[in-house]
């Protein structure tokens, strides 16, 4: 299996007042992710009395995991609904086409 190992130069990001040099293929995307994590950590810090950055990181990760699972559940529900609707529409289209063949 071939993988693309072409990386841009390191991207320096700040997450909760700590600098990190991260590598990846899209510097802008890496920066957006870092800003999101930083925002989550700061949001958790505002709501708790915790000042330990490791604990804040874990709590922020749990918040992000919760968001992910809620979105995944919504996606799965929408995907199932889409599959059901396309099945119904496909069946209706088959009926119309069969009727057309009988007439034609």
How would you characterize this protein structure?
By secondary structure, this protein is mostly helical. The chain contains 2 helices and 2 strands; from the N terminus they run ββαα. The longest helix is centred in the C-terminal third of the chain and has 51 residues, at 53-103. The model has no long low-confidence stretch (mean pLDDT 91). Strand 1 (11-15) and strand 2 form a beta hairpin. The protein has a two-stranded antiparallel sheet with strand order 1-2. Helices cover 69% and strands 10% of the residues.
Strand line-up of the largest beta sheet: 1-2
Main structural class: mainly alpha
Overall radius of gyration: 24 Å
N to C succession of SSEs: EEHH
Percentage of residues assigned to helices: 55-70%
What are the low-pLDDT stretches, counting only 5+ consecutive residues below 50?
none
Alpha plus pi helix count: 2
Q: How many individual domains?
A: 1
The overall strand count is 2
**How far apart are the first and last residues' alpha carbons, in Å?**
51 Å
DSSP strand (E) fraction? 5-15%
Biggest sheet layout: 2 strands, antiparallel
Gross morphology: elongated
Average pLDDT for all residues: 91
């Amino acid at each position: 299996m071939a993988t693309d190992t072409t990386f841009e130069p390191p991207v320096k990001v700040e997450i909760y007042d700590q600098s990190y040099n991260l590598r990846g293929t899209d510097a802008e995307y890496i920066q957006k992710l870092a800003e999101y994590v930083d925002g989550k950590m700061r949001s958790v810090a505002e709501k708790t009395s915790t000042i330990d950055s490791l604990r804040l990181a874990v709590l922020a990760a749990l918040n992000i995991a919760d968001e992910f699972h809620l979105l995944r559940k919504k996606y799965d529900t929408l995907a199932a609904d889409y599959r059901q609707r396309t099945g119904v529409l496909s069946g209706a289209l088959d009926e119309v086409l069969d009727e057309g063949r009988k007439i034609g």
